[in-house]
Amino acid sequence: MIANRRLFSVLALMMLAEPVCSSFAQEAMTPQEFCAGLPPLAQENCNAAGELLSAPPTEEHLTVFLRASDGALSVEYRFSGEGASDDHSVECSAENVITLPAGEVVRLLFTSSDAIYSFDVPGYAGPVDLVPGRVNELLVKSPSQPGEIDGTLQTDSEDTKRAVRLRFVADKQAFNPQDGRRVATGCPR
To answer: What PROSITE patterns does its record include (predicted)?
Structure first.
């Protein structure tokens, strides 16, 4: 069910302690400013990834930015028409559960901040590598009915697997504005 798959290479982009999308907004730094000190080839790749992450999602797709660190996932939800500079994204401690709207196209962005991981939900998404300094993109259509699908997040360095659950919800309120932000069900405030 993969509609689109692209790979953008970024050197040193994920070295920030904060999520990249938020970093550009909070520090009022453009991708070009952030990447300025890198070698030319790395700078080109860094700029491409920065533009991808700071641009508003295309069409009307929900964008979910997944970052692996210390064997766990953090999730940042970005909504159509909202760029990083608008600060309308919501970052969640996923506890290895990713909540998505049922029956919609979702844009998934994957990266890691510490090691190489493999994300796989057999029959739905993946396998996708999460590599420090790279952002992998996957455009998927979620199942039309609410439910859950199990997958794995595996670290290559220790060959350990952790269960990951994709939860699909039909309740549109789970993705509607609340206090000026959109919060997914299961995402702690």
So the answer is: COX2_CUA (PS50857)
